[in-house]
Amino acid sequence: GQQLNQSPQSMFIQEGEDVSMNCTSSSIFNTWLWYKQDPGEGPVLLIALYKAGELTSNGRLTAQFGITRKDSFLNISASIPSDVGIYFCAGRQGGSEKLVFGKGTKLTVNP
Amino acid sequence: KAGVTQTPRYLIKTRGQQVTLSCSPISGHRSVSWYQQTPGQGLQFLFEYFSETQRNKGNFPGRFSGRQFSNSRSEMNVSTLELGDSALYLCASRSSLNTEAFFGQGTRLTVV
Predict the structure, then answer these.
(1) Of the candidates A108, A61, A55, A54, which has an alpha carbon nearest to the alpha carbon of residue A85?
(2) Mutate to test the interface with A, among B4, B43, B50 (most CBs of A within 10 A)
(3) Scanning A48, B20, B55, B59, which has the fewest C-beta atoms within 10 Å of its C-beta?
(4) Rounded to whole angstroms, how far apart are CA atoms B95 and B88?
(5) Chain A contact set for B103 (CB, 8 A)
(6) Which of B100, B105, B108 is most worth mutating to test chain A (most A CB atoms within 10 A of its CB)?
(7) Greatest CA separation found in chain A?
(8) How big is the CA angle at B93 (ends A7 and B87), to the nearest 5 degrees?
């Protein structure tokens, strides 16, 4: 099925560092979402973006909806150990309610 | 407010059997969607139900089916299980069609 291109696949960082990950697509999406999944849990919504060019923050997290509507990035500032997990981007195209997901970015934070 | 509840949490089935998974949405939520998560394919949309009607369906074979009851609870059925059906099956609910969904913890299905 259709998927988004999410990178990097994994990241190993030191506590306190900033993190950046992104998703791209060859198709236009009307909504971009960022989720975090902890082991044994379902994905939890972090940020939702609905407008091209939109920049939204949620605490130490900042995400942007690309102006072309084909990409989005997520930044995490001053990482802490509890940021460990897998981050997924997801997009929704016009006229469809289903979400298309990226394959995830596995984040490891060393204390 | 209780979250999305999926039962069972873990399941082991034999190839060729069928399985039914259950999802109870957040109280008041009328939309339930199902996703399959595997290491190889990631998260893939199966189908979505709203007010007992299937609104969207992903690219899965007819062995995968679902339904939604009048109380918004949903079940997903997989018949003639194959080894490749081993996955985490996630259910998500939302209150209406223009809101975002909340995911349950998933049912881990292993087919042997």
Answers:
(1) A108
(2) B43
(3) B59
(4) 23
(5) 35, 42-44
(6) B100
(7) 44
(8) 55
Q: Tokens standing for A63?
A: 């995400």
From the list B42, B92, B105, the residue facing A41 with the nearest CB is: B105
pLDDT in tens, A1-27: 567 999 999 999 999 999 999 999 999
Q: Bridge-partner residues for B20, per DSSP?
A: B77
Task: Read off the pLDDT of residues B91-109 as tens digits, 9 standing for 90 and up.
Answer: 999 987 778 889 999 999 9
Note the residue count of chain A.
111
Is residue A107 within 8 A of residue A38, CB to CB? The reply is no
| Distance, CA of B98 to CA of B81 (rounded, Å) | 34
Contact B3, B103 (CB under 8 A): no
Residue B49 with chain A: CB contacts under 8 Å: none
A102, two tokens: 């990226």
